[in-house]
TrEMBL record:
Domain of life: Bacteria
Taxonomic placement: Bacteria, Pseudomonadati, Bacteroidota, Sphingobacteriia, Sphingobacteriales
Domain NAD-dependent epimerase/dehydratase: from-to ranges: 4-227
Alphabetical list of InterPro entries matching this protein: Epimerase_deHydtase, NAD(P)-bd_dom_sf
Protein name according to UniProt: NAD-dependent epimerase/dehydratase family protein
Length: 332
């Protein structure tokens, strides 16, 4: 196996490369426009933006990969404009083009997202090509999935849909969610306890490796949600609160939190940071289940214990990770 990874410098990629290097699994390179978050991965890095179509083709020609893992993407939901997610649309098209023109490739894994489908009326999709995206990010990933299905790639292909991924090397949660909990400023809306789909990043890495190891005919044209079994949101939130503060999170009346969220929307328009707004508030109330059983049956979990995973994540933030985050670096 000669594995080419795009986006290996980021969150999931850093954990996946850790898995590969710690187990001496396979020869690989990381194609990314950004230097790796983990400096120990610098030797595997090949600087390239996936929007640079010809440069990407040249790297494919030179390396002649047998397997491709496409993680490179813009993954936030901050914009409601599809054109802001060009990495996910044009970038994926460039990746597919490179695979189509490289006969050495046997399997291509395209990373999508659970956000390609969300429905209160029909919580779980009836088909793997059924889409109800609710964000511009989700629309961009829908388009990348359709480009994969409609491509002329000679290789087998697999689509993975990460759920809400967390763990070491996540650059967002320590500055937002976890900092708010640590300060004792997180308030849960009343007795709401929706079912959510979370994904400890090392379980995601394990499941991706399982796909790469599988016979190509077994995973060809398959879609796998990657992550953990869905769980009650308060179970997940309280695990972090107990680890950080020794206490469960506080609850707050739903009507008052809704009012604060409306105020947050107004403040956001003034470009002033505010921790609560209507999108986040509604997300705290909504169930977001995903059909994980197919993945769990095929590849299982490498890290099944929630409390241990939370401890490992907080340990990383307080240890090597603190140098990325002023709040945690300066905390005594």
């Amino acid at each position: 196996m000669r594995l080419l990874i795009t986006g290996g410098s980021g969150f999931i990629g850093s954990n996946f490369i850790d898995l590969l290097t710690h187990n001496n699994f396979v020869e690989f390179i990381n194609v990314d426009k950004q230097r790796p978050l983990n400096s120990q991965h610098n030797d595997y890095w090949r600087p390239c933006d996936i929007l640079e179509k010809e440069k990407l083709r040249q790297i494919f020609d030179q390396y002649a990969p047998t397997h491709v893992l496409h993680l490179a993407a813009r993954t936030d939901t901050a914009s409601d404009k599809l054109e802001d997610y060009v990495e996910n649309t044009e970038g994926t098209a460039n990746l597919i083009n490179a695979v189509e023109n490289q006969p050495s490739v046997k399997l291509t894994i395209i990373a999508s997202t659970q956000y390609v489908y969300k429905s209160k009326e029909f919580p779980l999709p009836e088909r793997e090509d059924q889409y109800i995206p609710h964000t511009a990010y989700g629309v961009s990933k829908k388009l990348s999935e359709e480009a994969t299905r409609n491509s002329s790639m000679h290789s087998a292909w697999t689509i993975i849909r990460p759920t809400n991924v967390w763990g070491p090397w996540n650059m967002r949660y320590p500055n937002e969610f976890l900092k708010i909990i640590d300060k004792g400023l997180y308030f849960h809306p009343g007795k709401a306890n929706p079912i959510k789909s979370y994904a400890y990043v090392k379980n995601v890495a394990h499941q991706i490796w399982g796909i790469l190891q599988s016979p190509t005919q077994a995973v060809d044209k398959q879609v796998y949600y990657v992550g953990d079994p869905p769980m009650a949101s308060l179970t997940w939130v309280n695990s972090f609160s107990q680890e950080l503060t020794g206490k469960k999170v506080k609850s707050f009346p739903v009507p008052l939190m809704r009012l604060a969220s409306h105020i947050g929307d107004y403040i956001k328009k003034l470009n002033i940071p505010f921790p609560l707004h209507m999108v986040r508030f509604n997300n705290m109330l909504d169930d977001y289940d995903t059909p994980m059983q197919k993945t769990l049956d095929a590849f299982g979990l490498s890290h099944p214990n929630l409390e241990e995973n939370v401890q490992e994540t907080i340990g990383w933030i307080r240890g090597n990770g603190k140098f990325f985050f002023p709040y945690w670096r300066d905390k005594r």
